[in-house]
């Protein structure tokens, strides 16, 4: 039976003599692996459908979990991501996190939308804020939401000046309570903005790169995944 699904290529590996095995993130089936036959031959039509970041509508043939891609029509290849090393690593970090969080046969519509939106932004040249927002959303989808409030959850007072981020609870607290690792006001402001709060732009300035670092550490702490590509991306961003 043919199955049709929008998929984002998380990774692909060589397989057999001329084939590839592609791992996709789909809305309906979560993570889905499928063979793409003959795709390593010169002039193969489905070559694009195995490239990392390729977002396409795939048609699969097969049963019992063994699928073969028979057709693909491209939505977006995000080709401009390859024009800068910062963009490339940030985008690869998104695939790394999506790969770690998604499961086979567990629908992942929101994760797919968040990943595609972040890749669109990075493709358009907005790197650190898009990566930070994706990591914020991904943490929430993984069951570890970040709480970024104005009031310290420990003592109840307004957080001012230096602040701390508690990896165990995923929340910011004040310098008097000082639970967790030091965090900057701009990181806190940006994550409050991502939470839907109204925050002036000048308060979030410089917060995106710091937020990427903090959220990578937090996701690694919560999931036990090292997220090495993401760590390299954070280093490249400054
Ligand atoms: Zn406090």
SSE topology:
Layout: E1 3-15, E2 19-26, E3 30-36, E4 55-63, E5 66-76, H1 85-101, H2 109-123, H3 128-141, E6 163-166, E7 171-174, E8 181-183, H4 185-194, H5 201-204, H6 207-223, H7 228-237
Parallel strand pairs: 3-5
Antiparallel strand pairs: 1-2, 1-4, 2-3, 4-5, 6-7, 6-8
Helix pairs in contact: 1-2, 1-3, 1-7, 2-3, 3-6, 4-6, 6-7
Bound molecules: zinc ion.
Residues 152, 154-155, 157, 173-174, 176-177 line the site of zinc ion.
Question: What does the model show?
Answer:
This protein starts with a strand and ends with a helix. The relative contact order is 0.12. The protein has 238 residues and is of the alpha+beta class. Helix content is 37%, strand content 25%. The strands form two sheets. The protein has a five-stranded mixed β-barrel. Helix 3 (128-141) runs parallel beside helix 6 (207-223) and helix 6 (207-223) runs antiparallel to helix 7. It binds zinc ion. Zinc ion (ZN) binds next to strand 7.
């Amino acid at each position: 039976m043919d199955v049709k699904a929008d998929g984002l290529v998380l990774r692909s590996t060589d397989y057999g003599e001329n084939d590839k095995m592609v791992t996709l993130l789909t809305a309906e089936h979560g993570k889905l692996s499928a063979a793409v036959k003959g795709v390593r031959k010169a002039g193969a039509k489905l070559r694009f459908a195995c490239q990392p970041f390729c977002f396409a509508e795939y048609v699969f043939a097969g049963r019992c979990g063994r699928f073969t891609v028979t057709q693909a029509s491209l939505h977006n290849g995000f080709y401009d991501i390859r024009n800068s090393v910062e963009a490339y690593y940030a985008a690869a970090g998104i695939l790394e996190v999506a790969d770690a969080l998604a499961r086979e046969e567990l629908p992942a519509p929101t994760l797919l939308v968040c990943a595609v939106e972040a890749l669109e932004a990075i493709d358009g040249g907005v790197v650190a804020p898009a990566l930070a927002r994706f990591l914020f959303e991904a943490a929430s989808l993984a069951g570890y939401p970040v709480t970024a409030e104005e009031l310290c959850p420990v003592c109840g007072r307004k957080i001012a000046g230096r602040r701390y981020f508690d990896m165990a609870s995923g929340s910011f607290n004040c310098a008097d309570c000082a639970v967790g690792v030091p965090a900057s006001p701009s990181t806190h402001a940006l994550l409050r903005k991502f939470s839907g709060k109204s925050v002036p732009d000048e308060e979030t300035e410089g917060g995106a790169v710091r937020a990427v670092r903090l959220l990578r550490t937090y996701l690694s702490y919560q999931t036990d995944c090292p997220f090495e590509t993401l760590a390299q991306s954070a280093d490249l961003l400054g």
